[in-house]
Amino acid sequence: MKTLLPTVLMLSVSLFIKGQVCDDAASQASYAYSHAKKAYDSNNRDHLTQASERAYEAFVKTRDAAEKCGCNDAYNKAYDAVELISKATDVAKWEDGRYYVKKSRTLAQEIIDALDQCAANGPVVEEVSVDDSGLTELQEQQKALEEQQKALKAKEKALKEEMAAKAIQKERLQKEAFVKKQNASIMAFIESANNILSTTKCDDVLETTEADNSILDLSMTEIEAYFKSEAADLAKALADKLKACK
What we know:
Keywords: Coiled coil. The protein is mainly alpha-helical and 246 residues long. It has helices spanning 8-41, 45-69, 72-88, 94-121, 132-199, 220-245; strands at 2-5, 128-131. The chain has two domains: 11-124, IL-4 antagonist (De novo design) like domain (Four Helix Bundle (Hemerythrin (Met), subunit A)), CATH 1.20.120.660; 172-245, no CATH class. Strands 1-2 form a two-stranded antiparallel ribbon.
């Protein structure tokens, strides 16, 4: 038995939709190029990281759109760009980040060129006659492609989870460093205050206070507010004790 694939009407609709999606892919690739360029031109690690994160989002959208519009060359390059730019979002040195964004920027231009080539070539509209065995082979190829896409999406999900975990760890380390510094400042203030109280022959002293690790569960804004309040309370306590000694 033979089957005619596909009908002209269905193919026309499909080509129109794919053309729109390829246009979206090209737009996102342009955004990715722009953000990658900003990251490369940045003069410090923080600015590089911020621009790289925006480029990462644009590359992900480019990859997904390129996959839907059937431009395999653009899809493969976008997939590589996503992996490269993700490394630039979490680097210890500015120079290392510039290496990744430079390669990602180059890929962005190659993606745009690949999408232009796909649009220029266009698919060939013709009637294709295949028998049942041919259909089975096509179905097997389609199934294999779907499995490959599932594997790629699973890898992308794992990559996002890894980046999220790194971001949480980075924030935790920043909090720990800030709390350690503020605790040291408060202890130094208490020591100085007690020295002042002793020279004025006050019997009373300020009690030692130090934030424990439970404070790390708060947001950075809440932690900063806590230490501001603590500093104000200590200053008031010192003033009250000095006044009471007169």
